[in-house]
Amino acid sequence: MRARPSLFVSLSLITAVALLPATGMAKKKKAEAAPAGPTVLEAVTEGQPYKSWAAFQPAADAAMKNEGDPSALAVLFVQAMVARTYDKTLGEAMMGYVVWDDPRSSYRIKDDGSESGFRINKVFQEELAEPDRKPRILFAYCGGTPSGNYRDHDFANCTPTIASDYSARMQGPKSGRAKYFLNNEGASRPRPITLKQTEDGLWRVYTVSGLMTGVAATAEESAARADD
User: Which of 193, 188, 185, 189 is nearest to 212 (CA)?
Assistant: First the structure.
């Protein structure tokens, strides 16, 4: 399989590009065409987590095989959602690698063209419809806040955190299931994700609907309502 470029983009790079003066852009158009610069996916900083399939796979393998604490799998799933915003094919290949699959039911299908050899099926794709419509849901797992209008999210370094005390109080790994709660800056309480063990002992992502529900209004929206 061909190597894919790394995923996450330096926010400072994006800001710098966005702030280029219009006059400068006009001069470039008149000048002889310069060599093409790096694509969005290539223009990244080094050392950021899970930017590529090569980084994601060993982390996923370790989490799925962890008998005592598979919570890292919950974090990896959200990072795969972030990857999907940059590269849908790669993000869904990552998800396809870690979602539920056994002989009786499965949330994935084989795809020899994907990095993992799998992708999520249409049923699981429907779970992602709400964050697709409202990206702020995902922003809020990556540091975005209502007061910052969710523009303060940091996809480049997104590492969602587990509400450890809340998760342990509600339900930890037992009887082949584990429910963890991820902190979300736009929600009044942490959001749940359920993992389940297959017959061969691997943990897989089983239920994610709790991650996908709406978040609080932005400060701008709240101010506009107050003015009405």
Answer: 193
Q: Is residue 147 part of a domain?
A: yes
Q: How would you class 223 by CB atoms within 10 Å of its CB: exposed for 0-12, middle for 13-18, buried for 19 or more?
A: exposed
Residue 78: how many other CB atoms lie within 10 Å:
21
Here the tokens at position 33 are 């065409």
Residue 90 inside a domain? The answer is yes
- The pTM of the full predicted model, rounded to 2 decimals, is 0.76
- Higher local confidence (pLDDT), 41 or 93: 93
Phi, psi of 97 (to 5 degrees): -75, -30
Q: Number of folded domains in the chain?
A: 1
- CB under 8 Å to 137, separation ≥6 — which residues? 130, 131, 184, 186, 211, 212, 213, 214, 215
The total of other beta-carbon atoms located within 10 Å of residue 199's CB is 9
In order of 60, 75, 104, 170, the CA distances from 192 in angstroms are 19, 11, 24, 10
Establish if 22 belongs to a structural domain.
no
Tell me the C-alpha distance between 163 and 116, whole Å. Answer: 29
Question: How far apart are alpha carbons 114 and 90 in whole angstroms?
Answer: 7
Mean pLDDT across the chain: 79
Nearest-5° angle of CA 56, CA 59, CA 65?
A: 135
Residue 196 lies in domain = 45-227
The answer to whether 23 and 66 are in contact (CB under 8 A) is no
Residue 65 lies in a domain: yes
- Token pair in block for residue 146: 């209502």
